[in-house]
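Work Package 3 (structural annotation) set out to generate three-dimensional models for the target panel prioritized at the project kickoff. During this period the team completed the workflow that converts sequence records into discrete structure tokens, so that structures can be stored uniformly alongside our sequence database. As a representative example, we reproduce one entry of 203 residues exactly as it appears in the project archive.
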Amino acid sequence: MAKDKTQHYFSAQLTSDYHEQSFSASLRKTLFTFYTASGVFSIKKIDKGSELLINNAVITERAKTLLDLGCGYGPVGVVLGKCFPKKEILMTDVNERAILLAKKNIAKNKVENAKVRTSDGFTNIKEYFDIILLNPPQTAGKKLCLHLIEESYKHLNKDGTLQIVARHQKGGKSLSQHMKNFFGNLEEVAKGSGYRIYLSVKV
């Protein structure tokens, strides 16, 4: 069967063969092992954007609930869940293969405060959060990314933060401007390798 070139890591169901692999990475001064497979994003190593977000996400003491939106195989939620065991972590993705891997990575790294749920954007999310983290699927189109920013605002508690990571010169600048317009504020938390983390607060 020819490979379906229309399928992407943001597709719900994948027809490509399942080839599982694993790698280890040191993040927030802790060593983690991750299972990955074909059909999910960045399978051989932590992508630069996620790495920047993991190491620089603003996790305040008062924040109790965190959403890793579009979690992929789960590096953001797994690391932050392990490093901040008192937080409640929800990890979601539309990709069923990513969901399977995220569950395996939670178990592999013994993260006890994280759970995984299948959801296309916010369609299966009713809760409100203190922190929402997003590495937006820019290859899925700008319209979807802008929609996720707007829906994130609706699912934040008062004083909650949306933190996204993106390449500043490849779409990130316009996404950050939309955050500023929609939230009324914007802060650049960190930058590296062409990526920046943008943070907006729901006031």
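The radius of gyration is 16 Å.
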